[in-house]
Amino acid sequence: MPITRRHFDALIIGAGGAGLNAALRLATADARVAVVSKVFPTRSHTVAAQGGVNAALANVLPDNWHWHMFDTVKGSDYLGDQDAIEYMCREAIPTVYELEHAGVPFSRIDNGKIYQRAFGGQSQNFGGPQAARTCAAADRTGHAILHTLYQQNIRARTHFFDEYFAVDLIRDQEGAVVGALVMEIESGEPLLIESKTTLLATGGCGQVFRTTSNAHINTGDGMAMALRIGVPLMDMEFYQFHPTGIAGKGMLITEGVRGEGGYLVNKDGERFMERYAPNAKDLASRDVVARAIVTEVKEGRGCGPQRDHVMLKLDHLGEEVVAKRLPGIRESARIFAGVDPVEEPIPVFPTAHYVMGGIPTDRFGRVVSPVGSGPEEVVPGLYAAGECACVSVHGANRLGGNSLLDILVFGRAAGIDIMDYLRENRHHRPMDETAVEKAVARLTRWEKKGEGISVRELRDEFRKSMEDHAGVFRTEEVMTEGVDRLKAIRAKLADVRLKDQSAVFNTARVEALELENLIDVGMSIALSALARKESRGAHSRPDYPKRDDQNWLKHSLYTQEGDRMDYKPVRSKPLTVETFPPKERVY
Amino acid sequence: MKFRVYRFNPETDTRARMQEFEVEVFRGMMLRDALLEIKRQDESFAFRHSCGEGVCGSDGVNANGRNRLACITPITDLKEPVHVRPLPGRPVIRDLVVDMTQFYHQYRSVQPFLIHKEPLPEAEVLQYPEEREKLDGLYECIMCACCSTACPSFWWNPEKFHGPQALLAAWRFLADSRDQAMDERLDALEGPYKLFRCHSIMSCVEVCPKGLNPTKAIGHIRELMLEKAI
Fold first, then answer.
1. Which residue, among A149, A504, A511, A515, would best test binding to B if mutated, counting the most B CBs under 10 Å from its CB?
2. Cα separation of A16 and A387, whole Å?
3. Least buried of A47, A116, A221, A448, by fewest C-beta within 10 Å?
4. Tell me, what's the ipTM?
């Protein structure tokens, strides 16, 4: 049966903050834009972001975009590209105002301006006193932003394909991306969307780990689709473990708790961050705090009967502050940890949270990829933004409050550049039927019947392996074993069978397609991590404890074909200001 | 622990049935964990879920006769055997998955977006803390549909009555000091059905997993309409 085809100027895959902000640009400029999302847009994981979005508005304390830029470069452990970081920190200010104008219910201070709280890694005057740069809507900022963006897209009459799963991108012989094969989950029917431009905005891949703050849907779909058309993934070894997930469960407790004055203690009641980061203490960068917690637990100073977590204290803040600024956290702690944080501390341990790496792009959101052995070039028609992309503004470690910023700034940048591209490329390129067949084969593969391994079984094994072998601390030995395991798991994928072959709302089939994506992305994390023989940001190797700028101040590129690693230089020259040269990173 | 879950696959079933599963429980287990365990036993079991922490609003279900968000419902709150059904009053697509089209349509029809008509300043539109406080209890809605699908008025008139969720959204914008479309918003709610089908039964308030109060919001809209009429 022939597959139905639809035509659009722009196809956006993913309806989180990045996808919706790009869609809003395009729809208000009258482009024909389609947003494909495997869940209804307000279910996208942007909804779970708590603490806020960074912008140097200086509403609460003095601030300046240049200070924000310095903090971001330092936070990235000097692996971030300084042109993109300058762009993001400058654009942060108009971006937040634009969101406010769109209706985001930001918390306010007495003079009616947007409330800003302190977050980790923020400073005034290039490393001076703590700054307050994170614009917040209580502790539900992501929810407030996502709903507002969806609402404005309703107003702009954006065309949504809700509950459609993106199967694969279609790339033609000349290397241009001409659309994607998607599947309507409700009917199980495939649909071919032919588009002049395609934006990947599929978010993160936290489901590669067993314990994560990420939702069930965060399976790295866009990253895996990029890999399968020959685009490499960049800096995938840099995976952020958020210091404060609810112990044993992984749900997030925002850094905003520490921003409001909360702090961590070990079993002796010691405020241990004072030893690890004498100045910033509990508001040191996330990589620093996560390592400190794991070290406390490893050295026997953890809390609880198993001594396997630490405590986050905020009872001294008083009920009023908690009720006003951290209501969502109080609710989560009550439900999932069984404690009311107004009275008792919350048991916490690091949880897999955010991938700094992703699909390489320039600061216009255009996907860039090396051609043969030559330098990188733009992949015509393909864009990426948000957590699935790597611009790179986060380098080796992302600062809290910079991810909502990243998705909004670069979602919008991609939208703007897509408009330029559409002006110069008025017609659809011909569809590549061979590539379509290949994409369809990815669906029909799951029609194989008979005995085999279940999706669930292999998925559990995979996620456990990732947790055991690519966690906070990584040694050669642990990672080599991990890579072997992952290769065995990847080989077993061919033996996985679906018992349920039905068409209508078959979630088992969606999970099978997601499992393939998870394994492709997990492989990129493990191999990139094994190759990098230094400690930088979130990538921490006890066998190579120092940062090595001589050999490793460069971006990793993992290509799926042959599991190959390549490297490219860091862009250390900003747009208008002086470079921040690498320095020792202390907090 | 025994669970009896609603099963219906339109490709093979002519009518729905309840299927029993035995699930091993653990401390801190939520209803969503139990549903995931059932899916482990039978991969053909379908339900929506995502964030697992009560913010994405995907996993509204009816458990033991009451609409709830599965991921934040401790199984210790539920009497055994636990009966799990799809949200009531909506067409069932499969198992616990219902067709939400009508619900989303009602949301879209209240113009759920901020309308600011005057020229915008370069910086933020000022809003004082006491003005902002009026949005608390309104903007937090996660659109899980627990309220609207618990509302008898919405069961009878889903195409005409906006339902508690959409009306909460309507009030969220009417209550926003930055919004400048009050007259249009109120005019659009005129007529016997859209707003006035609410009979203050308050099922919505009882079931809202986020503790919000749509009935109160509807009351505020009524007051505004009355003021405007005078």
1. A504
2. 10
3. A448
4. 0.98
